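Aim 2, interim progress: modelling of the magnesium ion-bound target.
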Amino acid sequence: MASRYYSRRDFLRSVGLGAGALAVLGRFSGLQAQAVQAAANKPNIIIIFADDLGYCDLGCFGHPTIRTPNLDRMAAEGMKLTQFYVAASVCTPSRAALLTGRLPIRSGMCSDSRRVLFPNSGGGLQDSEITIAEALKAKGYATCCVGKWHLGHLPQFLPTRHGFDEYFGIPYSNDMKPTPLMENETVIEEPADQTTLTKRYTDRAVRFIERNKNNPFFLYFPHTFPHVPLFASQKYKGTSLRGLFGDVVEELDWSVGEVMSALRKHGLGEKTFVFFTSDNGPWLIQHLRGGSAGLLREGKGSTWEGGMREPCIAWRPGVVPAGTINPGLSSTLDLLPTCLSLAGGELPRDRILDGIDMSSMLRGKGESQREMMFFYRGTRLMAVRKGPWKMHLITQPGYGDGPTKHDPPLLFHLEHDPSEQYDVTKDHPNVIADIMAEIEKHRATVKPVPSQLDIPLRAGAK
Ligand code: MG
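Predicted structure of the complex, ligand included:
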């Protein structure tokens, strides 16, 4: 794991912001103009993030009846990552990890009593965290978040306070009331008409790309769907062989196609990295309304592979080798260091980062540098992956039954047994001992902070 130490102050100075500017990060002008100039040759970055889409819900990841021609094309022109993980198998901690490059236990964005933030939560992503948007904005990028935020709905936690110039979307999950649609920090519709959300998000995203075609931009595009309740537009409703879930995913695929068309139309393809993945595995207790993790065990909410491993595609013509399938270990945690590497920025050093720069792997010029993954549920370490091995200390279904502790732990060889069916603990005592030692080292780096998810909404706040 990369552990770099560099203060927030040093970090902001390194990107051209002096002490006087620290207090007004996000509102600076002259210094930002210099950074914009320096950023002229930097690649654009787009992260498209589906919600509760399983490992096997795309055509290019093996679904037999959901049609995803645009994502299939993106995979054919780019790289499919087949051992790509999120840092938590539910929305809030997974999103916090993506944007900060840190395990949620380090940012307080997880809890053992509430798994995600709710409309009656008073907490959110802390200002002390550095997001990808904040880091790229400081390098002169225009930044935009379109879609589901779920890192705090109070004004101080919104995307506009975390490095995004603009925001359009729903601040939490679409099954939470009152489901406001927000433009920056203002509610413009409540409840949001969810049948038109994917279309409206896409229009916003395309307009942002067009407005910024002459300067580097970062678009974080976390879709509301296919999280339940499912809504498709009139155009897609009733059109998929896979029923409403398929309609919704096929409309998301259309949306990806619109983003890619906008890039091609403006000659931005070779200047733009696009990543597509999902925040967690399929919501299996929703039965037909939920997705599929295919051969992976379990789904959303669990630390079995079905909850944690997601479909992932990386694309940049001429840079990411076309038609490649890469089984290197990689994670949403790696996006912050990777984006900073692509943008020529330095990593913050005053905190522990859990991400690793995967830019050389994406260029097809090296193996993944990631060897370990730590799988948490709330603040509890449940399982650890090292190389091909995954060791479970505790297992628990995503929903329903309580935890089962394993002593000795369970051990699976994921490259031989991706479905985690055959426990081989007895045959590999050295692997168990080695991973146990890694856990001791890891635990020494973890200083739990108060959970933001446990903070109730104060009376009168909203
Ligand atoms: Mg989710």
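The radius of gyration is 21 Å. Confidence is low (pLDDT under 50) at residues 1-28.
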